[in-house]
Specification:
The protein contains 13 helices and 10 strands. It is of the alpha+beta class. The protein has 2 domains: 194 residues, Sandwich (Jelly Rolls); 109 residues, Arc Repressor Mutant, subunit A (Orthogonal Bundle), CATH 1.10.10.60. The strands form 2 sheets. A 6-stranded mixed sheet has the order 8-1-9-3-6-10, covered by helices on one side. The chain has a 4-stranded antiparallel sheet with strand order 2-7-4-5. Strand 4 and strand 5 form a beta hairpin. The termini are far apart. Keywords: DNA-binding, Transcription, Transcription regulation. This is AraC family transcriptional regulator. It holds the Pfam family Cupin_6.
């Protein structure tokens, strides 16, 4: 194994961007499913699924996702969907489909981590719900599909799936509860990030202009330094000096690959950072404006309202509510 190790990779700006993503697990449950099963999941949270035994189908308004043993799916947006062992949604009375949590409550299994919906189990499924603690790179969120799927037989690159799941099982069956929730969150962070990597690098990297920016060393380095030090008093000229391009060349290349200007991107990223801080801290708006790189509270508030539709104070109040 050690013989196959290569030199350290060059600056990985994608890691600096993906570091903004952290999952907060709301719940996870193992469910035992009989044949002829169907249940509705609401659109309030993001969801994940991993099939231990058998098969299951996920039906949304737009698509059908087929899952077999060892497959994993993440729905990174709150989308209403139906889980079923049936092979077609046409065979399901969607108007009479029970809600998942209602069904759990009705069977008095709310606190159970293993739930059985019938005596003859055909499918065992790990399912759960989560939210993102932070999603500061909105442009990346915009291009993530409505579901990420990894099939157990796709390639050697997905072997982390089984390793990660074994780690998860070890943690939830351990008697040591010290840091339990944090460890669970971090395990699912790894699941999500690896599924993102598989999606971007193996399948769809060439299909998106923004992602193609990571192939260009100048744009990759530009994104890296912006995300590393967003509060620095950046100008296009200063960034160009930092990465070794002329001001005009950087502007043209950045706009062509990302579809927006350099300073527009920096402003959007700073506002995303600020929005997250407004949700998760009590920092004063004036100090926050300075920390994320705006020249004054007035400039920050004006820019924030232009992008988010309300003033920072209103955004914080709405988030608390």
């Amino acid at each position: 194994m050690l013989d196959s190790l290569k030199e350290y990779p060059e600056t990985d700006c994608f890691s600096s961007i993906l570091s903004d993503f952290n999952m907060d697990i709301i719940y996870y449950k193992f469910i035992k499913i009989p044949n002829d099963f169907y249940v509705k999941k609401n659109s309030l949270t993001c969801c994940f699924y991993y099939v231990l035994e058998g098969h299951i189908n996920i039906f949304t308004k737009q698509q059908t996702i087929n899952m077999s043993k060892g497959d994993a799916v993440i729905l990174p947006r709150p989308i209403e969907h139906i889980l079923s062992t049936k092979d077609s949604i046409a065979k399901i009375d969607t108007l009479k489909t029970p809600n998942f949590l209602d069904l759990v409550n009705d069977t008095h299994q709310t606190k159970a981590r293993v739930i059985s919906f019938g005596e003859e189990t055909k499918t065992i499924l790990l399912c759960g719900a989560f939210t993102f603690k932070m999603s500061t790179c909105q442009i990346l969120m915009d291009i993530i599909p409505n579901f990420l799927q990894v099939k157990s037989n796709q390639s050697e690159k997905t072997k982390w799936l089984n390793i990660g799941f074994d780690f998860f099982l070890t943690e939830i069956t351990s008697d040591n509860n010290f840091g339990h929730q944090l460890i669970i969150n971090r395990i699912f962070d790894l699941f999500f990030l690896n599924m993102l990597r598989a999606y971007f690098t193996e399948y769809h990297l060439d299909s998106n202009v923004w992602l193609n920016g990571f192939k260009d060393p100048y744009i990759a380095k530009t994104l890296f330094v912006i995300h590393r030090t967003p509060s620095r008093k950046w100008t296009v000229e200063l960034l160009a000096q930092e990465i070794g391009l002329s001001r005009s060349a950087l502007s043209a290349k950045f706009s062509a690959m990302l579809g927006q200007g350099v300073m527009e991107y920096i402003s959007s990223y700073r506002i995303s950072l600020a929005a997250s801080a407004l949700k998760n801290s009590n920092i004063s708006i004036g100090l926050l404006a300075e920390k994320v790189g705006f020249s004054s509270e007035f400039v920050f508030s004006r820019s924030f309202k232009r992008k988010m539709g309300c003033l920072p104070s209103k955004y914080r109040q709405t988030s608390y509510n």
